[in-house]
Design goal:
single chain; alpha/beta; Cytidine Deaminase, domain 2; Helix Hairpins; 15 strands
Amino acid sequence: MNELELKYGCNPNQKPSRIFMENGNELPITVLSGRPGYINFLDAFNGWQLVRELKKATGLPAATSFKHVSPAGAAVGLPLDETLKKIYWVDDMGDLSPLACAYARARGADRMSSFGDFISLSDVCDADTARIIKREVSDGVIAPGYEPEALEILRSKKNGNYCVIQIDENYVPDPIERKQVFGITFEQGRNELKIDDELMSNVVTANKEIPESAKIDLAISLITLKYTQSNSVCYVKGGQAIGIGAGQQSRVHCTRLAGQKADNWYLRQSPQVLSLKFVDGIKRADRDNAIDVYIGEEYMDVLADGAWEKIFKVKPPVFTREEKRAWLDTMTDVALGSDAFFPFGDNIERAKKSGVKYIAEPGGSVRDDQVIATCDKYGMAMVFTGIRLFHH
């Protein structure tokens, strides 16, 4: 099959719409279920590149949760501890495969943003992973293959309309990529930059110590940024992105946005949140929304009389600003990547509040000395990669 007609483009009024191979070759995908749309395929193909590269870089199964052509989460398949199982709502599922752990992490890091995601998996989808996908609100999944039981589970989702795409893992795109804007064709070489230890060799801070686990986290952050709409930064801890700031015009706003997401991820692990008692039958999305409001500044929206009774069995106490700050101060060893240089030390000041200790950025700002000095003030280790990772 050389082309596939789509229902419409980005919006229902944008017709006709299709994907096709301009060189006349066969499309490297097979639609096994559902009818993926234009944005679905944009998410699928960007996400597939991300997880394929994560797998190559770490040797571990990888997953990502995409929304509107940027990842909401990305992770590799490291085991989940009991706390992570609980905050990702998989503590009732027993032992999970590495691929299922990767998706639980990718989906769970920012559940608000991942609602209605498109999933990319580096490995053949197994039944464990399919069972997690089955219970979440999602548009579709792309993977190099599906175990029979997994495919049966996925095909039953959305009354048989859930989008399931199989991609040829041996497909290699042309080295030149093109797109049109306003009828004008843009052309460039594909970004085939390899993210590896060599890229992390230029440590510019007084602290030169970057353990292997932190190098893996920095690699995950940079690979994630390669497929995130710029400007972008990515906080990573323990093999998964915990906060991604995408598409902001100001870099410090990226750092703040992603930092707030990282903070929310960690606040969800606090005793105050883990002890919340929800009413029976509450929907997963309503539960996620309630937690997000409870740990935010508008907490009275869920704690006011007449409101909390619909959500909680027992009215929880206010999670005060001081209590939240005290808990966040225990978050450590976070890695942070940036797709371009930090122009001011204010980015580092914000990163410190979210436990960042390791940083990778291109360098090249006229204020590099100020940025390095701010890192040195906090004992952070920072590498200059010399490589920008803009993605549009």
